[in-house]
Amino acid sequence: MADALISPAVGGVMWVAAAGLTALSARKLKEEMDDRKTPLMGVLGALVFAAQMINFTIPGTGSSGHLGGAMVLAVLLGPYAAFLAMASILTIQALFFADGGLLALGCNIINLGFFPCFIAFPLIYKRIAQSSPNRKRILAAAMAASIIGLQLGALGVVTETFFSGISELSFKTFVLLMLPIHLVIGIVEGFVTASVVGFVGKTHPEVLEMAAESSRSNQISLKPVIVTLVVIAALTGGILSWFASTNPDGLEWSMARSSENKALPGPQGQIHSLFSKLQEKTAFLPDYGFRKDKAEGAATNEGKKGNDEPWPCVSAGTSVSGLLGGAMSLVLAGLVGVGIKAFQRKKPK
Amino acid sequence: MSHHIVEVKELTYKYPDGTPALNGVSFRITHGESVALVGANGAGKSTLLLHLNGFLTPQTGSVRIGDMPLTKKTLKHVRQTVGMVFQDPDDQLFLPRVYDDVAFGPTNLGLPPDEVKERVMSALALVGGTHLKDRPPYRLSAGEKRAVSIATVLAMSPSILVMDEPTSNLDPKARRQLMHLLSKFEHTKIIATHDMDMVLDLCSRAIVLRKGEIAADGTVRDILNNQDLLDASGLEKPLCLQGCPICGILPAGQA
Amino acid sequence: MGSIGSSFFDIGHLDALSSKQTPVHRVDPRVKVLTTLCFIVVVVSFDKYDPARLTPFVIYPMAVMAIGRIPFSYIVKKLLIASPFVLFVALFNPILDRNPALELGLFSISGGFLSFTSIMVKYVLTVSAGLALIACTGFDAICSALTGMGVPGPFTIQLLFVYRYIFVLGEEAARMARARALRSFGDRGMGIGVYSSMLGQLLLRTMDRAQRIHLAMMCRGFDGEIRYIASPRMRWSDWIFLAGWGGFFALLRLYDFPAWLGRELGRLI
Asked: How many CA atoms lie within 13 A of B148 on its CB side?
C-alpha cells in the first residue's frame, strides 16, 4: 500500500482508526501491568522484522515468500501487544524503506495488524485452538486464522485503493489479483505459525500461558471496540468528504460532472466562470491572472475520492501550458538544488 | 559502614524444574572488599549473583544487603545499592543511544532531567566513554559496549558492584583497560569470572563454588596456590603462575 | 544472506546520515514530522489527471536533501528499488483508461497516461520526503517527537526496542541463514521446513534474551512505568520552518503555478 495510490480522505480515516486502536492497546497493556511483556514485545517485534527479510520458497510455486508474522505475535503476546508490535514494525518499515508510505501507514496497520490481531485471532484461532490445544487443532486454527486474516487484509488493500479512486483497477480485477496470491501465502503462514506455536509450547509454555491470560481477561470488551471504531471511521469519513466538497474544488467537481463526456477542455464560457470564481476567492492576489482569452486553459479540477463509480472521463487537469509550466518548475527546482550544493561546496562545513 | 555489607546465610535454591542450584551457601563481604566468585560452568555462580539484587528469592536462608533484608519492599532500594553488570552487553543496552541507556536507571529513580544528565556524564567520564554518548550500541566495539554497560549501572551510584564475566569477549587491550578501570573503583566488587589472571590482579579474596556449595573462601593467594582445590573445582592457576611453556621454569615461590 | 545484511546495513546507513550537523538536522523533529505529513497529504490530494501541478513540490525534498547533505543518488536508488509494486498497479491505468484527455497538436494523451504519470510523480515525491525525513532526523529524535505529540508511551518504547534489536537479531538471523547456505549445495532456496526450524531457534534465543533484558531493566529500577525524557522547547526558527513550508504547500495547492508559468512563457515566446 503506497501513498501514491490513496486519497487523503481514505488515508486520513485509516490513520484515525489506527491511532485510536494504538492508544487503546497501549492503555490495555498498562492495565495488565505485566512488565515482562515490554522487552518481549520489543524483541519479538525485531525478530518478526528480521524474519520478514528471509525468503523461503513456497512449495509448488517455486516463488519465494516471507512471513507476515501477525498471527505468531498474537499467539505469543495476546492481541493488544501483538497489534502494537505489528504497528511498530510497519512504522519502522514506512520510515526506512521506500515501500509503503507515511500516509498509507494507517491503512497498513489496519490491514496487517487489526485484521489478524483483533479479528482473525480472537474469532478464529482462539475458538478452534483453545478448547483443546493439540497439534492438529493448533494447525487447523493457525491455518484458518492466517488465511482469513490475510484475505481480510488483502480485501482492505483493494477497498482502500478503490475508494481512493486513483488507480483505474476495478474492484473485481484487483480482488482477483490479490486474493488468490494471499490465499497461498496464508496457507504457508498457517503452517509456520503452527510449528512456531508448537515449538514455544514445548520450550516456553509459560509464554503461551501469559498470552492466553491477557486475552482471556479482555475478551469481553472487544465488541464495543469494534463498534466504536466503525462509528469513528464513518464520522471521520463523512466529515472529510463534507469538507472536501465544500472547498472551492467542489465547484469544479460538480461542474465536471455536468459537462459533456468530451475530454477536451470545455468551451470558453465554462472556463471563464470558473476563473472568475477562483479570482473571487483569491482576491488578495489580483495579479495572479489567468488570461481569460486563452482558450486552452483547462480547469484545474480536483476531483475527489470517488466513493461512487469513477465518473466518465473528464477534462484533464493539465493543460498544455500546465505541461510546459510543469517542465519549467522541474528545471527551477533542479536549479535550486544545484545552487544549494554549489553554495555548500564554497562554504566548507 | 554497615550499609555496604553483603551477608548471605544458608542460601538454598532449586530451579523450577527441581535441579538443585545452591545448597547452604554462606558468606559475608564487607565494605570495599574485592571478591572473586569462581567455579566451573554450572557451579551456580550466576544463580548466586541473581540473589544479590533480589531477582531470585532463596527458598531457605537469607540475603542481607547492608542493614536491610531482601524483601519486596526493599527491592528498589537494594537495586540502587547493588549495581549488576551482565555478561552480554547487548542485553544491558536496550535503547537506541548510549545516553538513553545510561540515563535509564536514574530516570527510573525519579530524578529530574538536569540531575539525570549530570549522573550520565559523570558515569560516562568514569568509564572513559564520554565521546560515545550519542552512538547507537550497534556501532560500539565489544570493549566500548562493556564500558558503557558498566556506566549504565554506575549512573545509579551503587555502593556494591556485581559483575558477571566482565572480561569475556574482550581483546587483550580492552581487557587491560577494563581491569585498570575496575582497579580504580572503590566500590565493593563481587566479580564472577573464569579469568584467573584478572582475579590475581584485581581481587583480594576469592570464593570457590563447586556444585552449588562453597568449596573454599579465603585470600586469593591461598586459593590460587592450592592445586588440589583448583583441580577438584574445575579450575586452573592463572597463566602467570603457571610455568613457562618453553623452558619450564616456574615463577618464584612455586614448588 | 545478502538481502538481510544489506537491509540492515541500509538502515544503519540512514541512521548514520541522520547524525550530520546541518541546519535541517537542527530543526525540531516534531516540526519536520508535521511538515512531511502535511507535504504528503497535500501532494496526494491532487487530482489524478493533473500531474503537472505536482512538479513544484519537488522543491521540498530537494531542498531538504541538499541542505541536509543527503546524497541524491542514494535516495534515487532506494526509490527505484521499491517502485515495482506501485509501478505494477499504476500500469493498469493507461491500459484501462484510454479516453483521450489532452490534445497536443497531432497527439492525444489518454487520461490513463496522465493518471499513471501522476501516480508515479506522487510516489517519487512522497517517498523521497519520507526518506529525507528519516535521513535528517534520526529515529530516536522521531520517537521523542512522537512522544511530544501525544503518542502513548508503550508504543514509543516498543518502537525504540524494535529498532534497537533489529540489528542484533538481524545479525543472528543472517548468521544462521549463511550457515545454512554454506551447507546447501546447489542454488535451491530455503524450504519451509528449514525455515520453520531456523525461526524456532531464533525465537528461543529471542525469548531468552527478552528475559535477560527484563532482568537488566529491573536491575535499573524499571517498575513498569515508562518515563521518557521530553524533547526541548521549540525555537522561533522551528516555527518559521513549519509556517513557511506549510504556507508554500497551501499556496501551491490553491493556485496552479505550472499553468501560470507555462502561460507566461507562452506569451514570451
From this structure: 34
Secondary structure of residue B14 in the 3-state scheme: strand
CA distance A64 to A183: 14
Q: For an interface test with A, which of C162, C220, C253 has the most A Cβ atoms less than 10 Å from its Cβ?
A: C162
- Candidates B254, B211, B235, B222; CA nearest to B23 is B211
Domain borders along chain A are 3-245, 249-317, 322-349
CA–CA distance from C17 to each of A234, A336, B161, C70, C116 (Å)?
Answer: 41, 22, 37, 7, 32
Across the interface, whether the CB atoms of C221 and B94 are under 8 A apart is answered no
Q: Which residues of B96-130 are buried (b: 16+ CB within 10 A; e: fewer)?
A: bbbbbbbbbbbbbbebeeeebeebbbebbebbebe
Say how far apart CA B240 and CA A7 lie, in whole Å: 73
Ranges assigned E (strand) in chain A: 56-57, 64-65
Interface test with C, best of A40, A43, A287 (most C CBs within 10 A): A43
A-chain CB neighbours of C256 within 8 Å are 300, 322, 325
Residue B141's contacts (CB-CB under 8 Å, 6 or more residues apart) are: B174
Angle at A266 between CA A260 and CA A270, to 5 degrees: 105
Q: Go through the domains of chain B in sequence order and give each one's CATH number.
A: 2-241 (3.40.50.300)
How big is the B-C interface in CB pairs under 8 Å?
77
Strand partners, B35: B190, B205
B234 exposed, middle or buried (CB, 10 Å; 0-12, 13-18, 19+)? middle
- The rounded distance, in Å, linking the Cα atoms of A137 and A129 is 6
* Interface ipTM > 0.90: no
The helices-and-strands tally (H runs, E runs) of chain A is 13, 2
Q: What single string gives the DSSP state of each residue in B102-165?
A: HHHHHHHTT--HHHHHHHHHHHHHHTT-GGGTT--GGGS-HHHHHHHHHHHHHTT--SEEEEES
Instruction: Note whether A26 contacts C127, CB cutoff 8 Å.
Output: no
What's the rounded mean pLDDT across residues A257-263? 36
Q: What is the CA radius of gyration of chain B?
A: 19
CA B231, B236, B237 angle in degrees (round to 5)?
120
**Residue A5: its pLDDT value, please?**
79
The DSSP symbol for A277 reads: H
Grid coordinates 498471527 are at which residue? A71
The answer to whether A42 contacts chain C (CB < 8 Å) is yes
pLDDT in tens, A117-147: 888 888 877 777 776 667 788 888 888 888 9
Task: Please tell me the class of the A3-245 domain.
Answer: mainly alpha
Per DSSP, the three-state class of B39 is strand
Which 8-state DSSP code applies to residue B42?
A: T
**Does A3 contact C at CB distance below 8 Å?**
yes
| Cβ-Cβ contacts under 8 Å, A39 against chain C | 161, 210-211, 213-214, 217
- B113 close to C (CB below 8 A): yes
Q: What is the average pLDDT across A89-98?
A: 86
A169: chain C residues, CB-CB within 8 Å = 89, 92, 96
pLDDT digits (tens, 9 = 90+) for B164-211: 999 888 888 888 888 998 898 888 999 999 888 999 999 999 999 998
Query: Does pTM surpass 0.90?
Result: no
What DSSP letter does each residue of A309-322 carry, written as one string?
Answer: SPPSP---S--HHH
Interface of A with C in 76-135 (CB under 8 A): 84-85, 87-89, 91-92, 94-99, 101-103
The answer, for A205 touching chain C at a CB cutoff of 8 Å, is no
Extents of the domains making up chain C = 20-137+230-258
Residue type, A213: E
Contact C166 A329 (CB under 8 A): no
